[in-house]
Design a protein that fits this description.
The protein is about 75% helix and about 0% strand. It is built from 8 helices and no strands. The chain is globular.
């Protein structure tokens, strides 16, 4: 009986400690860092370094792609310098939407709310959300572009179409990536957020410059 052998029954404090550790580890993984094996204040800088450096190095190397992409389109930026004003906000918005999506899906996977069998439903749900978010961001950035010195209506349309496309792309990929990783027995909490951030940064730039070239008649 539960009250007969109190030593064999898990105490509330023990259960709380376990739950707290699990939540802490999940948060650290989503941030792209391996979980700490000891409390933060006891952890040495060398331990923090080892826990963070691997994914930071991977992301750092991947960001070289963004440099290559910008260099490839340097003539476009030279002719239309106003386009460079919007690079940060475009890829930043895509990264934010992707991270939001990934975090939601990873949490749903962790608590058993979804599984591989729900992939299509999750994809459609997040794609619909991406459409709405993209539409909202497109309107906002179009208005902001019109208030920017040197920006024309065409430039406003370019950044509006780009942010809409990036939002839809980020939400779509962010919805499927954790499920795929989970199916491959890879911890989605560790991989998803860094990967989606890197992916959206690079592909977002390609989308931006492709739309700009098409709409602004650059060759």
């Amino acid at each position: 009986f539960p009250g007969e052998f109190p030593g064999d029954v898990p105490q509330v404090d023990d259960i709380t400690d376990v739950l707290e550790r699990e939540v802490t580890e999940d948060i650290e993984r989503i941030g792209g860092s391996a979980p700490l094996s000891e409390p933060y204040l006891r952890a040495k800088p060398s331990l923090l370094y080892r826990k963070r450096v691997v994914w930071l190095f991977v992301l750092f190397m991947a960001q070289f792609l963004t440099v290559s992409i910008i260099s490839h389109y340097d003539s476009l930026l030279a002719d239309m310098t106003v386009l460079s004003f919007f690079i940060t906000i475009l890829i930043g918005t895509g990264g934010n939407i992707g991270s939001q999506t990934v975090t939601t899906i990873v949490r749903a996977l962790a608590v058993g709310e979804i599984g591989p069998q729900h992939t299509i439903r999750v994809l459609l749900k997040e794609a619909s959300t991406g459409l709405m978010l993209g539409s909202t961001m497109a309107v906002l950035i179009f208005v902001r572009a019109l208030l920017t010195s040197g920006a024309t209506v065409q430039v406003g349309l370019v950044v509006a179409i780009t942010v809409f496309s990036i939002a839809l792309w980020a939400a779509t990929v962010g919805s499927v990536l954790p499920i795929v990783l989970n199916r491959l027995k890879v911890d989605p909490a560790v991989v998803s957020a860094p990967f989606i951030s890197c992916l959206v940064d690079t592909t977002g730039l390609i989308i931006y410059f492709t739309v700009a070239k098409a709409m602004l008649d650059f060759t």
